[in-house]
User: What shape does this take?
Amino acid sequence: MKYVDEFRDPELARTLLARTAARSTRPLRLMEFCGGHTHAIMRYGLRTLLPPTVDLRSGPGCPVCVTANADLDRAIALSKVPEVILTTFGDMVRVPGSRESLQDAKARGADVRMVYSTLDALGIARQNPQRPVIFLGVGFETTAPTIAAAILQAQSEGLRNLTVLSLHKLTPPATRAILDAGELAIDGIIGPGHVTTIIGSDAWQFLPADHGVPVAIAGFEPLDILRAVADLVEMVETGRPAVANTYARSVTPQGNRAALEAMDRVFEVSTAQWRGFGPVPASGLSIRADFERFDAGRLFDVDPGPTVEHKGCLCGDVLRGTVTPPECPLFDKACTPVRPIGPCMVSAEGACAAYYQFARDAL
Amino acid sequence: MSDKVILLAHGSGGRLSHDLVEKLFVRYFDNPTLLQLDDSAVVPIPESQAPFHGTGDQVLSPLPASPVRLAFSTDSYVVSPLFFPGGDIGKLAVCGTVNDLSMSGAWPLWLSAGFIIEEGLPLAELERLVASMAATAELAGVQIVTGDTKVVDRGSADKLFINTAGVGLVPPGVEIAGDRAQPGDVVLLSGTIGDHGMTIMTQREGLRFDSPLESDCAPLNRLVADLLAAVFFPSGEKSGEGGALRCLRDPTRGGLATALNELAARSGVGIEIEETAVPVREAVRGACELLGLDPLYVANEGKLVAIVAPEVADAALAALRAHEYGREAAVIGRVTDAHRGRVVQRTALGAHRVVDMLVGEQLPRIC
Assistant: This one.
């Protein structure tokens, strides 16, 4: 594929790797914020190609994974309200909540439908005017604008049966929370490419300014990631932390103005519950009062039951980067993709799923 | 909770499907033929016994055991939409069973066809599908010799489901089974992967791409016959042996990754494949990229994986490439005694990664 193959070129990869190895003199720990990066790193075996001085840790950048059990239970309870059609992105259906998953609820009669975009949810709402259609809004700054756009579209069409349960989360506050907690020494951050396309690279200036930690915004091809690692190594070695944008074909300093405006019209920043973190101030997006008739959280009064955390599951620690997936006692034993216990083993962006799928039994 | 009801993922061809087969069906239907767990059952035609003893105590002289063995297979087809670029559910139903039989080295002869039809299906559509089945059967050289029709209430089925079963004959000397791969063997693939699955997926999602995708749905029995001939007669003379063709699989549901994992597990060997050697069409790669899927896990309906002894690899590859359904055939890897039971891929960058079986439906990423 044109435009993609050049970012997977083995020759260039070898050159970059050799340069990084030559430049890296001291051990350093980098966190890739995004689950998409974790998967690319494992899929292409980049950990084994990088010099031993570079330790990569995956971060909280998997929206399915950071969804708190209580929120997931509420979504499952919503799916059981008579006549409701609950629409969601695919990965969510397999995540076990306190007692069951959406997939279990579906097999028992709940009308849960996987969609590829909010446009599909709009279509389902139009086709079923007599039934409440709820969209499970899970995601970061990447998905939030599309959901804002869907709400604005529903409003302009006078579509009355589409609502959204907004569990959206913001990525810079979570990164700040990890650094503030100080549980893990982090020398650099591989910044999320898609999120930063929306919010702009300036949104990460606080990392070098307040924390002295360099960040390199990266795309999702192997060369993107190797280039980001090379830049981070360089900034650490020279002691000059900054925001490097290695994904300039997509990311600008200011981000996507139109997307940010749509988000701001529909949502307001609020405290959100993160798995592994608990409540993080100013890290979530709630639907503004002006749009309350689209807010499933306000319109439906359901009892999700008591929240039960999965015993022994270390997803919370994995999401904070304090533990790597194979260090969890359940990994590849009680918890596998077939019978996942925690969300990190389910999601296509989950760190445990990536380690399990690509690197079980270090070869 | 998940243990108690059937989930869609039980039908995806991945790990849950395997669990269902091994922990439920095999447990109850337990017999040595079923335990082969290949695409079709291969049974000897025994020396005639009881069936020829009539009730009137008349005894026919026993017939000797046949050197030819019987291959028997069945499959059900529920694809939606019924018509798609490159095929339709009728063509698929014939090819699927013909291919399952062919993967045991059998020459398929007779098929049955069972139709479960939803009330309201336009007769013209059914006729188009039946005509397509007839044309495909003709192409493969098989006959549809028995059948059944059921019509169910609107909503009790989705338009049309088809079941086909088939019988074929396995020539003497041909020993193809999933447990016969040996370290040192060569892994061949008959062409590009992911064409069928991505065609269906993009039809379902209403996506359109610049270069149209087309299902690879095709009957592979003639390709297998050519392959067998090449292995039996690698240099034009009868010097090879049928046993040099160890395993055949058509990587349908669960894709190439799942087929290779099954072979690695059944044979107790490791398989190493080269990422750059596996042919994938541009349009398929693009569609996979867009939906966040890995072509290794996407279904095929006109491809086969062959594991052959190294001494016949060249002849086998040439035989595949000489056939219209195998023009893009390639050597994609080797069987090894390292990492037994596992499939490992050497990536374009030279790193190694495990290629696991598919778990659940492959789903698009959410951000």
